[in-house]
Write a structure and sequence with these properties.
Blueprint lengths: L10 E6 L2 E5 L6 H14 L16 E6 L2 E5 L2 E5 L14 H13 L9 E7 L5 E4 L11 E7 L2 E5 L9 E5 L4 E4 L8 E3 L14 E7 L2
Antiparallel strand pairs: 1-2, 2-11, 3-6, 4-5, 6-13, 7-12, 8-11, 8-13, 9-10, 9-12
Bound molecules: succinic acid and fe (ii) ion.
The site of fe (ii) ion has 3 residues, from loops.
Length: about 210
């Protein structure tokens, strides 16, 4: 019999040991997530951070949660104060927290308690070079990453920078969860292509939830 529901979203794709793509998992929440991004960025604006090496990142970033990821001349760090405003980072919106916890649970990571959400905004041409998420102390907690708006090519490698890369297109509403064996795997985003998305216009947003 023809199974009409086999390809209906959301569906899960294995990516690597401990890593999964939850296709279109955030589609139903997307409008609420984007409204919350607008609220957060009204308090802590998007900014292009400067790396310790003096390079201005092409991705614009802000944060919400108890702590936020930021840079200074000495390195990368989590801090409770937004260095640009001098205020606490905005609280994590409820719609963010519940989605991140549900996605972690659905991929076998129980009791995920993210205290930080990095919000990335990619304009056409913006990219994120291969890196590991290793500024967190809680390496037993997974990373939950939500894509909104324009599609982007996500690269996912291994523990070594020169391990072979998988390249997957992440589209509006896709969620990637990685932890366990793949928690420290290298990953990045290839330069964003021009385009227009009905939900976000000419950009892509990414929400990255961490337990620091
Ligand atoms: C990140 O690695 O922080 C972001 C990945 C993404 O934009 O999908
Ligand atoms: Fe990352």
């Amino acid at each position: 019999m023809l199974d009409l529901f086999a390809d209906t979203p959301p569906w899960q794709e294995p990516l690597a040991p401990g890593a999964y793509i939850l296709r279109r998992r955030a589609l139903a929440e997307a409008q609420g997530l984007i409204a919350a991004i607008t609220d957060v960025s009204a308090q802590s604006p998007f900014r292009q951070m400067v790396t310790p090496g003096g390079y201005t990142m092409s991705v614009a970033m802000t944060n919400c949660g108890n702590v936020g990821w930021t840079t200074n001349q000495r390195g990368y760090l989590y801090a409770s104060i937004d260095p640009q405003t001098g205020n606490l980072w905005p609280a994590m919106p409820a719609v963010f927290l519940s989605l991140a916890q549900a996605c972690a649970q659905e991929t076998g990571y129980e009791n995920f308690r993210p205290d930080a959400c990095l919000i990335n905004r990619y304009a056409p041409g913006a990219k994120l070079s291969l890196h590991q998420d290793k500024d967190e102390q809680a390496l037993q907690a997974p990373i939950v990453s939500v894509s909104l708006g324009l599609p982007a090519v996500f690269q996912f490698g291994g523990l070594k920078r020169n391990d072979p890369l998988q390249r997957v297109l992440l589209e509006h509403g896709d969620v990637v969860v990685w932890g366990g064996e793949s928690r420290l795997f290298y990953h990045g985003i290839q330069p964003l292509k021009e385009g227009h998305h009905p939900a976000t216009g000419a950009c892509r947003y990414n929400l990255t939830f961490r337990h620091t």
